[in-house]
Write a structure and sequence with these properties.
alpha+beta, Ribosomal Protein S5, domain 2, Alpha-Beta Plaits, 2 domains, 5-stranded antiparallel β-sheet, 5 helices, 10 strands, about 30% helix, rod-shaped
């Protein structure tokens, strides 16, 4: 089934290093959910590299919040190129911080832009990613026999069981991708010959199954 992702982000941290005319550019990618988390990550990178001359960064959140900083590099040569690489990657809720150790040779504005953009691009390409999609949460009351039938159907809709309460009947809470929620509800009604109708509880985000 095709499910359009709500957003893509990194699944874990990733770090890489490139060299340009003896200057070392160490780019680190980190998943963040807030501006505060991004700023904390940048501080941690500066603490990890106290002897470095610059720690440039950019972050982009899925709500559109963004920020970038050149950290002493010529304006427009570092933070903005880093942000552009994040945008091109299609990722959000992500921060890229690039630490530079000066190698003694001036790179010029063009050289700096290429180096910072290049480091960010390599780091973003190397980071593992996940896609999140919208899931609809539903509850349905079923007979024991119908519950067994539905258990077999749920994976066909990429659905997931959350809770299941066994009493006189079975009360199931599950989630399915929102793109197929209507089809799933109709299938439940058909499968139970109208004995059960799912009730929508709300919507949440979850990782798309691979």
């Amino acid at each position: 089934m095709e499910n359009d992702p709500v957003f893509r982000t990194v699944a874990g941290d990733f770090e890489t290093e490139i060299e340009e005319k003896r200057s070392r550019f160490i780019a680190a990618v980190h998943r963040v959910a807030t501006a505060e988390e991004a700023e904390a990550f940048v501080r941690s990178r500066k603490k990890a590299h106290p002897a470095a001359r610059h720690t440039v960064y950019a972050y982009l959140l899925r709500d559109g919040t963004l920020r970038y900083a050149d950290d002493g590099e010529p304006q427009g040569t570092a933070g903005l190129p880093t942000l552009e690489q994040i945008r091109r990657s299609g990722l959000s809720d992500v921060c890229v911080a690039t630490t530079r150790y000066f190698g003694g040779i001036l790179l010029g504005a063009g050289g700096l832009t290429r180096a910072y953009a290049g480091a960010a691009k390599v780091a973003l390409a190397g980071a593992p990613t996940v896609s999140y999609v919208a899931f609809t949460r539903l509850t349905v009351s079923l007979s024991y026999t119908d519950h067994q039938k539905l258990t077999q159907e749920l994976p066909r809709f990429e659905g997931r069981e959350e809770t299941c309460d066994f009493a006189a009947s079975v009360t199931l809470v599950c989630r399915v991708p929102s793109s197929v929620a209507s089809s799933f509800a109709a299938r439940v009604v058909d499968l139970t010959a109208g004995r059960s109708t799912p009730v929508v509880l709300g919507e949440t985000l979850d990782i798309l199954p691979l």
